């Protein structure tokens, strides 16, 4: 054990968390061969095989499982210590990792980040666009702008407001439907654009499942931005974020959601979040305060 490189353990842990060598490489920002080299070095130092190599991928051995269990909690404690030390940094400089969805990055966040960087040129921004919650407890990001009606209780932050949605279709699609004698509000008679299983938790997916027969959802996508693109090209009707769809001249807002569906659940809250250990760090505090004031223009209704 005296030859053990603790950096190798970090690579081993990344494979355990990501489930594959490729996922570990993406998480750590290195290439595939670097991860393999680190694992080989760890196995040589320990004198055991941690993974069996198959064409389909790596499978953990009993020794690997024992090591994984032995490391349980170590990485979290290291990350907690890093956050605690980082929280003492009171200078308006350094790096901030910001995560958000592709929808919010394009629809509202990017201009605000540009204005913040002009005001604080010594702060380096790293934007991670990801449609799932990154783990702020593990310092995968420092600040999150996320749409969520139930943000994680481990994070602190402020609710900016709610994003509304409505039913949209292209003018061309509606003209074609009218020629077939299909009324605009006859939901089961239309083709629909829906979201795939990765976004099944969103209000738009739940509304479609409740209001539209499954066979009428003729196109599914994995992005709200792509959903707007598909509707603009006439592929069907879709429940879209007004923030995005109202900017499209080729789309028409047909109706609000079916009133039988809880309208409050159709709207999506937007939260500005960070970890409690970082909230008083000067650069993080400056960014969250700036974004809160700068982004409120997107939410004309009073927030709480």
Task: Chart the SSEs and their pairings.
Blueprint: H1 6-18, H2 21-28, H3 32-46, E1 51-54, E2 57-60, H4 62-70, H5 74-86, E3 94-100, H6 102-119, E4 123-129, E5 143-147, E6 155-163, E7 165-170, H7 171-179, E8 192-195, H8 203-211, E9 217-221, H9 224-232, E10 238-241, H10 242-245, E11 251-255, H11 263-266, E12 268-275, H12 282-295
Parallel strand pairs: 3-4, 3-5, 8-9
Antiparallel strand pairs: 1-2, 5-12, 6-12, 7-10, 7-11
Helix pairs in contact: 1-2, 1-3, 2-3, 6-12
What does this protein look like?
The protein folds into three domains: 6-72, Winged helix-like DNA-binding domain superfamily/Winged helix DNA-binding domain (Arc Repressor Mutant, subunit A, Orthogonal Bundle); 80-163 and 267-298, D-Maltodextrin-Binding Protein, domain 2 (3-Layer(aba) Sandwich), CATH 3.40.190.10; 165-266, D-Maltodextrin-Binding Protein, domain 2 (3-Layer(aba) Sandwich), CATH 3.40.190. 41% of the residues lie in helices and 22% in strands. The protein is built from twelve helices and twelve strands. The protein has a five-stranded mixed β-sheet with strand order 4-3-5-12-6. Strands 10-7-11 form a three-stranded antiparallel β-sheet. A two-stranded antiparallel sheet has the order 1-2. The mean pLDDT is 83.
């Amino acid at each position: 054990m005296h030859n053990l490189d603790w950096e190798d353990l970090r690579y081993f842990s990344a494979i355990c968390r990501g489930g594959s060598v490729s996922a570990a490489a993406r998480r750590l920002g290195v290439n595939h061969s670097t991860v393999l080299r680190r694992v080989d070095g760890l196995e040589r130092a320990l004198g055991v095989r941690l993974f069996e190599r198959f064409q389909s991928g790596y499978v953990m051995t009993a020794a690997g499982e024992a090591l994984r269990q032995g490391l349980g909690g170590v990485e979290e404690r290291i990350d907690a210590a890093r956050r605690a030390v980082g929280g003492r940094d009171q200078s308006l400089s350094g790096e901030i990792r910001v995560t958000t969805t592709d929808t919010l990055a394009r629809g509202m966040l990017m201009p605000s980040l540009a204005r913040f960087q002009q005001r604080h040129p010594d702060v380096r921004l790293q934007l991670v666009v990801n449609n799932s919650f990154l783990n702020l407890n593990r310092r995968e990001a420092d600040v999150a702008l996320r749409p969520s009606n139930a943000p994680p209780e481990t994070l602190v932050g402020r609710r900016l407001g709610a994003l509304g949605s409505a039913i949209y279709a292209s003018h061309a699609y509606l003209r074609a439907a009218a020629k077939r004698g299909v009324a605009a509000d006859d939901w089961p008679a239309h083709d629909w654009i829906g979201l795939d299983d990765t976004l099944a938790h969103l209000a738009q997916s739940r509304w479609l499942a409740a209001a539209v027969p499954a066979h009428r959802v003729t196109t599914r996508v994995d992005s709200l931005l792509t959903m707007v693109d598909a509707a603009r090209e006439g592929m069907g009707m879709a429940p879209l974020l007004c923030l995005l769809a109202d900017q499209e001249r080729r789309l028409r807002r047909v109706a609000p959601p079916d009133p039988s569906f809880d309208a409050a659940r159709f709207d999506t809250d937007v939260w500005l979040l960070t970890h409690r250990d970082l909230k008083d760090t000067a650069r993080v505090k400056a960014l969250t305060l700036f974004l809160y004031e700068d982004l409120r223009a997107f939410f004309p209704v009073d927030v709480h």
